Amino acid sequence: MDAPPSDNNAYRFPVSVKGVVIRDGAVILVRNSRDEWELPGGKLELCETPAECLTREIEEELGLDVRPREIIDSWVYSIASDVHVLVVAYGCAEPSRGNPVLSDEHTEMRWVPLEDVGGLNMPAGYKRAIESWSAQIGVGG
Hints:
Layout: E1 15-20, E2 22-23, E3 26-31, E4 37-38, E5 41-43, H1 50-62, E6 67-80, E7 83-93, E8 108-113, H2 124-136
Parallel strand pairs: 1-7
Antiparallel strand pairs: 1-5, 2-3, 3-4, 3-8, 6-7
């Protein structure tokens, strides 16, 4: 009997797909239960692509219709000493500018002017993704 592939012995952690949505010089952010601001999005489920996951999650969390364009960053985020998540961030287009509606998954949502992002209580990876996407689409902050 063959041994299982050695990859099965690797450390495993969930994948969270997040989206940078910029409108009129501001990025939409949500506040989580740890009192951190973060990009909208969520956990990748089996049998869906990362782009499908992000489209679904932003619709569920905010009621917004977005189109993931490209992966702009990825990193492992340690939420706690024993909780790690692979975060994949996409830059998104917003074909229709709907009014976001906060779900019960977060405590607050806000369109934050790009120039204010640096001062927020938010993991550095999110700030880096926002800066990268805003530079790619030519919106300053």
